[in-house]
Amino acid sequence: MGIDELYPPDRLIAAQRATAAAGLDALLLTPGSDLRYLTGYDAHAGERLTCLVLPAVGEPTLIVPKLERPAAEAAPTTGVRIVDHVDGTDPYPLVVAALDGPVTAVGLSNRMWAEQVLALRAALPGAALRLAAEVLRELRIRKSPAEVAALAEAGAAIDQVHLRMGEWLRPGRTEAEVATDIAAAIRAAGHVTVDFVIVAAGPNGASPHHGTSDRPIGVGEPVVVDIGGTMASGYRSDCTRTYVAGGPAPADFLEYYAVLHDAQRAAVAAVRPGVTGAAADAAAREPIAAAGYGPAFLHRTGHGIGLDGHEEPYLVAGNDRPLEAGMAFSIEPGIYLAGRHGARIEDIVVCTTDGVQRLNTTPTELIAL
Ligand code: ZN
Ligand code: ZN
User: What is 145-368's CATH number, 3.40.1160.10, 3.90.230.10, 1.10.10.10, 3.30.565.10?
Assistant: First the structure.
């Protein structure tokens, strides 16, 4: 998979057209997924300004700190002029110069730092500040074949880590000890960063975003393991399996795990073009509610994934946008019983022209170690 396939230079042209169509004069993108999506540049986010100035019409300019110029030049920023600034100088006039004329509305990276937003507001008095997502959402929400391949590579890498869980997850070890081993394996499997490691045993499993703790894992306790990282491509993995170690799981747990397993499979099977995000959410939620666990499924069914770990589309009540081929997202229902235990099953899937492709392919049954 060539970098030109993953980050094609004509994306800048598509983004410029969309910027004009949205009634914006330019996009101003600081380090993050939008900048990387358009240029391939995995820029360092720091107090020194890095900003892609992408006018609706005209030449794009990447403003960078002088000490990061070599990194910017090494990135596949084809067709982008690079302008640098040195410490002790004000970089914001460079943004104004790169805009090459007065502007009435610009789109800023959604996750730009507030200090940069305020400096741009001061540098561009009278310009309306809007969100770049108005333009980039539609470009990023459908993945190209190269992006799907990158997500599949990430999915295969995190699957390898789950398949090794028996090496580390044992009663008597703490969640944190197990997580340290998992983190090393996430890197060994090909990720360049470890984004999160949740090891949630027993009652901790009832907290969906529990991280880890120094509590030892008990015999027969259900353990929710939700892990993910970022590959060199920039694309991310995210996969949850639930385990039980050293002995049989409690009977009440086994009862609802079977419900959860059916619900997760039903939601995956429901994915195809035209089905809304809300309907995919309902496909997971209805069997769980019918079994009496509705309130225990306390989050949405899924989130998009790509250069960000969470991005559009979201599978959630109220999202009436139909799914389309190329959209990639998680299917991750959970059941959480406070004070007792919890379970979640998560796969990343891609909506295809006629159905769905799972990018995580390990078994979703409860895994006894
Ligand atoms: Zn996850
Ligand atoms: Zn997730």
Answer: 3.90.230.10
Q: Kindly report whether the peptide bond that precedes residue 65 is cis, defined as omega within 30 degrees of 0.
A: no
How confident is the model at residue 75, as a pLDDT?
84
Q: Which of 268, 17, 18, 254 is nearest to 133 (CA)?
A: 18
Helix (H) or strand (E) holding 259: helix 251-270
Residue 333 · residue 264 · CB < 8 Å: yes
pTM score over 0.85: yes
- pLDDT in the model for residue 70: 93
pLDDT at site 123: 97
CATH fold, domain 3-140, is Creatine Amidinohydrolase; Chain A, domain 1 (3.40.350)
Tell me which ligand sits closest to the C-alpha of residue 228.
1
Q: In the chain, where does the domain assigned CATH 3.40.350.10 lie? A: 3-140
Return the pLDDT at 206: 96
Residue with tokens 């598509």: 14
Residue 28 Cα to ligand 2 middle (Å): 29
CA of 329 to the centre of ligand 2 (A): 8
User: Closest-lying ligand to the alpha carbon of 305?
Assistant: 2
The ranges of the chain with pLDDT < 70 are: 1, 77
What is the predicted pLDDT for the residue at 1? 59
Helix (H) or strand (E) holding 170: none
